[in-house]
Amino acid sequence: MTGSKVFLKKELPSWLPLVLAGLGAVLYLIRAVNYAHTTVSSLDEGSYLIKGLFYLNGTYHPFEPYGPLTNKAPFAFLIPGFAEYLFGAGLRTGRYFSIFLGLLTVLGVWITARRWAGNWMAAFTVWVFALSSMIVKLHARAVSEVIIACMLAWICALALDEKRPLWKIVLASVLASVAIFTRQNMAPLLPFLILYVFWQHGKRAGSWAFASGSIALLIFHLFYWPRVMTIWTPWLPEALTPFLDAFRIPTDSVPIWDPNIDVWNRLNAFFQGIRYHFIPIIGSFFGLILLPPRLADWKSASAMRAAFFLALSFFSLVLMHGWAALASQYESYSCVFCFSNYLGFFDPLGILFFVIAFTYAWNENPIRAVKIVSIFIVILVGTGIGYSLFEFVGNGLLDLPVVPRLRSGGLGFIAIVDALTQGLGMPLVAVKRWIGSSLGFIAALCVLLLAFFVSKRNRTNFIPALVNSFLITGFLLSPILHLGESRPDCAGTDIIRDHEELGAYLAAVIPPDSLVYWDGGNAFTPMIYVPQARIFPPQINDGYTFHIGGDPDVLYRFSHWNGELADRWRAEADVFIIEAKRYADWKDFLTPSEFREFAKPPVSQSCNEGAELRIFQRLP
């Protein structure tokens, strides 16, 4: 490491890493804009945008009974809603605002990395973002992951240093409270930050951090008291908190969203998260196990404290979200394959922990147990990444004639797929998973061999060579690791333009003050452009809030709905917006004698087949 730094100082100009960082930021921006215009809108995105707009213009208020579901802390909706309110309602505003926050995230991480590790490592962090297709694509949508990532990046930029002005520490503490009131799953962040400030900056700064952060969080809760408790009751055991039952949905109904996802798909979701966030997850893990055994071995006490705060925050949040997504059903709309999205909340923490640990505490001669764990992790992660790429195993691999078979004419070969499906009775999905896992295992062995030869040639220890080889390989192979997210959803379509055209059409044909029944897909985004219409708020979350049975009034008060409410709303609605592929369920209801259909909209909200909208109006 020391020799390489001397070489860089002698041979490379000091401005080069700054230029490389700038180029990485430009690449990030270009990719983000491309994804913004080609990515299909999602339920979450439509929810954040329209609820935020409703809350800002006074149509509804957070936690209002019979209003939109405030299932996340209010700022998750109010922040994008504020942008919509200022710059005009629409998908363009929401996504451009998110890209702006993404750039601020990259800048905040770069500033902190540069402060601790210099220009070269700071430039590396920019390129981690720029080459991570899944992260860029996530940042190009109006969702809360990029909002939280931006806050975390700037909390670190404000508070992590040997000496920080008091006003920056106070601002970081308030920002941590804002993060909690944006997503309640950030709850551990503020106490961890306060402990770090006490440890690093002393009693006076710690007291200010505690006071400012706590007062801000208290004010936020008092403003929305008592209905704000609805976001905290899922975290609290019912048996111990019966006094909070008024804020819980009664259990006399059954949510229809109850996915039965087997262990193999949960394993797939886990390794998807790792490959989409390879450097933050794997870099942090190796940073953790390769920490020096003694605190005295750290090159800087302040770096050690910063690293401990980052590691505690990052791994606590990873474990919390891993449990919520992969292992439990913590709420009716639990989402296994959201795990990779959840990791997007705290990428800045993982990246910065890796940078500081690598710079100040890389243990190049760990104990034997750490060596064994390192080798095992490389093999396991390599195999798991291959497993999670099974969907991209094509016919070229399946049909490879590499399995020997004795025939009447002598030795021959048959395709892998035939040998496994016909010979062993394996289903095609299992064959693809086996092939993907095998390729990942082979890739991991290649990394082990590469590290062995590098360590022998350079006369260095094997484990540092292995870890560096694995991380560099993953970094360079980012396009492969991000298969599944790197490809635009609708390459030949401008999703933002189509939403604007579709929204203009809906605004033109739907009469003012019409009551609209929405069955137009799980993304409510097109309705952002129809401010004159009235809606049934629980439908914003589509089927994720639909129940079988239950008291309709109680469900409605909690912003959920059931079949009885759906029937009631069908009888009340003036206009029906139906997704084309859902029309079969409606054709007996939307009869020509009672409804007229408007002309087909000029564009669709998505390039997916059957996503076109059909609009019907009840005849007088």
What can be said about this structure in brief?
The protein is an alpha/beta fold. The protein has 25 helices and 10 strands.
Under the CATH scheme, the architecture of the domain at 495-618 is 3-Layer(aba) Sandwich
| CATH classification class of the domain at 495-618 | Alpha Beta
What structural class is derived from the secondary structure elements?
A: alpha/beta
* Spatial ordering of strands, largest sheet: 5-4-8-10-9
Strand content: 5-15%
Oligomer: single chain
CATH topology of the domain at 495-618: Rossmann fold
The coarse overall form would be globular
Number of helices: 25
Query: How far is the first residue's CA from the last residue's CA?
Result: 79 Å
Main sheet specs: 5 strands, mixed
| Poorly predicted segments | 1-9
What is Rg?
27 Å
How many β-strands, per DSSP?
Answer: 10
Percent helix among the residues?
A: 55-70%
Write down the overall mean pLDDT: 90
Question: Can you put this structure into words, describing what you see?
Answer:
- It is a single chain.
- Among the domains are: 256-263 and 276-319 and 328-363, no CATH class; 369-481, no CATH class; 495-618, Rossmann fold, CATH 3.40.50.
- It has 620 residues and is of the alpha/beta class.
- β6 (546-549), α24 (552-557) and β7 (561-562) form a beta-alpha-beta unit.
- It has helices at residues 2-11, 16-38, 43-57, 75-87, 91-117, 119-131, 133-139, 144-159, 166-180, 189-201, 203-223, 263-276, 278-289, 301-327, 339-343, 347-360, 368-388, 395-398, 416-423, 428-458, 462-476, 478-481, 495-509, 552-557, 563-572; strands at residues 253-255, 401-407, 410-415, 515-519, 534-535, 546-549, 561-562, 575-579, 595-597, 613-618.
- The strands form 3 sheets. The protein has a 5-stranded mixed β-sheet, covered by helices on one side. A 3-stranded mixed β-sheet has the order 1-6-7. Strands 2-3 form a two-stranded antiparallel ribbon.
- 58% of the residues lie in helices and 7% in strands.
